[in-house]
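Appendix B, example 12.
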Amino acid sequence: MTGELLRIDNLVKRFGGLVATDHASLTVQAGEIHALIGPNGAGKTTLIHQLSGALAPTSGRIHFAGQEVTGLPMHTRAQRGLVRSYQITSVFKRLPVLDNIALALQSRERAGFWRPARADRARYAAAAAVAERVGLGAQLQRPAGALSHGEQRQLEVGLALALQPQLLLLDEPMAGMGPHEAERMVALLQSLRGSTTLLLVEHDMDAVFRLADRISTLVFGRVIASGTPAEIREHPEVRRAYLGDELPEAT
């Protein structure tokens, strides 16, 4: 698919008197890495919750792959290819890496648990391929809980990829990582460019400006600017929002 994959029109989310998203509008093009940035409390995670179906918006519309999905539950959006990973790592820590991914693959199968042995072999072969894709091919039998924090985040991306997303929503995939782990995650996300569309929430501005094809900036729940990294870097409202000291200089 080419062209517009996601469109958000005037999305509002109120919690009592608090407006978390304030008529937020943006588009994501198929195949791009689109970053969503903004100061703490800007409403970025709340927006991701609404896109995934975890939260219902107060008003506004969400269109995905040419269809309105505003009222659809999370599992239906995931079946259609709108998949998210979470800010807090969520894996089956007692199970090996291979079984974690195999369970994610099984979740999209309609036949349930009773399947021929050859189908199980095919699923585990596919799970091993996903593990290889996210850099965990050498750790198939290692319990997920024994992985480092960065490796667990890689596994979580693998679980999301097993659902064959058209659009993958990533909420701070580099949170809590050291420099080497963050570099591995950047390389992993770079490797998905063109094959999986990404909408990325991230506070690591160096990573954002290395990864993103386009960037949208959210301030007080409203998208104040969308554009290329170069356009966002020089945008006066964006620089004011970040006090001019968090945006990487052009190289």
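Residues 4-91+165-241 form a domain with the Rossmann fold fold (CATH 3.40.50.300). Strands lie at 4-15, 18-29, 33-37, 59-64, 67-68, 82-85, 167-171, 197-201, 214-219, 222-227.
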